[in-house]
Protein 1
Amino acid sequence: MLTVINITVPFFALVLCGWLAARAKRLPDQAVAALNGFVLYFALPAMLFRFVSGSSVEEVVNPVVFLGYALVGLFVFAISVAGLRWGNSDNWVDASFGGLAASWSNWGYMGFGLIPALFGKEAIGLIISAGLADLVILMPLGLLVASRQALSPGANAVLSGLLGVSRNPLIWAILAGLVVSLVRLPVPTAIDEFLRLLGTAAGPVALFSIGVSLYRPGRARVQTDSWILIATKLVMHPLLVWIMAAQVLGLDLTTAAVLTVMAALPAAGTAFLFTERHGGDVDRAAGLIMITTALAFVTFTLIAGLTARLPG
């Protein structure tokens, strides 16, 4: 457990640094957009391309991992939406994106740095396989459910979601890396070193950016419905992923552990962005992102310590 703590503390400390910098007004208002732009369009694509291009297709495209993680995500999303819609009388927008917050982990900004630090760079392939389930299944489904509140037909919402996926630079980096891997095209040393330097910045900048974006004075609400979603995200989601991976699918313990800690990450900021864009309850969405990120330092560390089986 001490080994896990020594790994997780620096990562969450970077998030705290970003939050403190935003709270102290040490960054301009445009800082979040600039940091996110660097991470999303430069650093993360460079890291993913470099990993995928140097790996076999089987290491990156794992249908069993994709299917298992997708099934759990769909189940968590469905029960969360049902509870919010009929138990909490939410409209479809808030129910859908509340369900998305409970079922979509922040693997993009936190996972690619934190999980390989625990399990080695081989874990990146598993994160990609499982993360694609969120991008191509959960996101369009969330938009489809939310569209029941909107004037546009559901088909347009799904099409919009799929177009968003097609424009995601992470998807293009993965596809480009797969092509290079399939044709066994060597990457020139100078370009590989450039990608390494750029990709190395992905983790620290992404974590700092999360902290900056978490500081939203006066824009967070945490009530009973939020606490249920928080518990679902931080406890139920990883527990169900462990059962699916280790018990139902019979995957090896390392793979099951990687998927479990991936599910144990806090809610992704995507839920807040969609809620804001569709005129939903941004106060609750902001609270969900903030509290799951803060509590994940404890819950993620405990789950990682139980599953990673690291020495110490």
Note: The chain has a mean pLDDT of 88.
Protein 2
Amino acid sequence: MANESIPIPVAGDSQDVGHLGDDVTSSPLWNADLAPTTAEQRTWSTYHIAALWIGMSVVISTYLLAAGLIEQGMTWWQALMTIFLGNVIVLIPMVLNAHAGTKYGISFPVLCRASFGTRGAHLPATLRAIVACGWFGIQTWIGGQALDALLTAAWAGWQNVPGHGWIGFFVFWLAQVAILWRGIEGIKRLEAWGAPLLLVGGLLLFVWALDAAGGLEPMLRGAHILQQSGQRRPWSEIFWPALTANVGYWATLSLNIPDFTRYASSQRSQILGQALGLPTTMFAFSFLGVAVTSATVVVFGQPIWDPVKLVSMIGSPAVIVFSMLVIMVAQITTNMAANVVAPATGFSNLNPRAISFLTGSLITATFALVMMPWKLMESADAYIFRWLIGYSSLMGALGGILICDYWVIRRRQLSLQALFDIDGVYRYGNGVNWRAVVVFLVAVAPVLPGMLRYAWLSPSALAQSPSLFDQLYTYGWFVTFALSFMLYWALMRGRAQAKS
């Protein structure tokens, strides 16, 4: 049982980022992509962190989340309040998990070794990677639709090509695979360049909606008209699942944020960059989605939540081509940053000697096809109430364990050397901290019945006679995060005190 000891270093034991006491390059837990970043690699300023979030937030999936809330029956102010509150909430675990990446220069899979064990870390890293593969597929599907619309606007005969939509999807997929060869520095440059263009494209769509609806007041009235029609679910029924979905939207990034903040120049840079970039940009771009979708009720008599479809309906060929180019840039910047780094490092962690970051990236792109993104995006119900809430329940359980372990159990002190040592203190029992695994399974158990019911039944049908498990599912992230945090603290606290 000696291998299960929990190291609680004294104040003088903390190590400088990127400096290991001994050479660990021969360890099977090490490769160049998983190694701690050095001082020379830490070039991301507050601007780069903020631009990263602008690039990841100003994207069609954000627009769809905001538009979907209007389509489901919220008024414009209800939707915006829910979105802002959800992003302020998720910013807290985001900043807390980011701290370890900046302090020690380690990635998410390496950080997981401290709580789950050197082998047990495969569980959170793989789960996070699978979710990211689903997101990669979703963003690629949207980008493929945009490419299809662009080609249709440029050449009317494109619509007569058999399988033209699928061709656009796979061409867009191949284009992203080609970009992956540029690595993490290429991602930073792409985000810094692309963010201003993405905001301009969104503002142009807002200007159209403002003019077509006849002003801001009638533009926002569309959401009230839709709610008063009686054809949508009331606010009281959709607030909590909508809030959970908004937290869940970034639940994955709140786990693997160390993959990015390990390149930050300081804690101040990562905290300010995230605080400035995440809630503000999500609120601003969500307002565009809320306002434009509300305007479509006034203009067309029904909510059109898909911006690709909307632009194709309202634009001239030149406008459609420009708009689709903007959308494709948005999808690429998000996929490269949010949906490649985490799974690539996660897959690399499975076998660091055999799987590099590039190989992990290619695995991610391939597995994204298996996730069938066209099914995940078939409706607002499927996107918000099944996909977002469903996977966020798993991510909440992982987040509670990681934050409790780093901030409460270890008090922000890690043995950097031991994270790459197969026989070190993070080996636990045969490389797995069974307590963390048990806590994870127990924490997600209460939401699984509701998750399965939502997978087969529509949210509107469930709302008519919700069970206790259905209600727990709508609070998914909050339930699993709280349970895992408390249970992990209860199981590990005594052991930590015994070692101090």
Note: The two ends are 17 Å apart (CA to CA).
